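Below is how a single chain appears once it has passed through the pipeline. First comes the sequence as given, then the structure the pipeline wrote out for it. We keep one example in the README because the format questions we get most often are answered faster by looking than by reading.
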Amino acid sequence: MQPLRRFFRLLGIPGIGAPRVGENQLGRIRAAMLSVLQAHSGHSVQRVEQRVRFASDVEALWYLRQDVMVALSAIDGEAAARRQMKAINRMFKGGLPGSMGPRAHQRFTH
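Resulting structure:
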């Protein structure tokens, strides 16, 4: 089964071949995301909180990071939101298929 799982992971098919994330890691990520949102109010923040609360797996939380970032940016500004999200982003390490991890962006210099 191990070679088959490795094959699916290389294909980048979500959920198949991906390392299984323990409930503890999922819970920690969810709690961290809810914690940064908890200090704020408003309808859009409440909608994001609800989506985070009911996300079924780490992949769903990975995609919700952008929504959390937008909600925080609207209130605190982008720089503050990025600082708050930095620790949360690190929590995903080892819990996502390789194709879903953060991408290194290279700046072009002349």
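Residues 22-93 form one domain.

See the next section for the split statistics.
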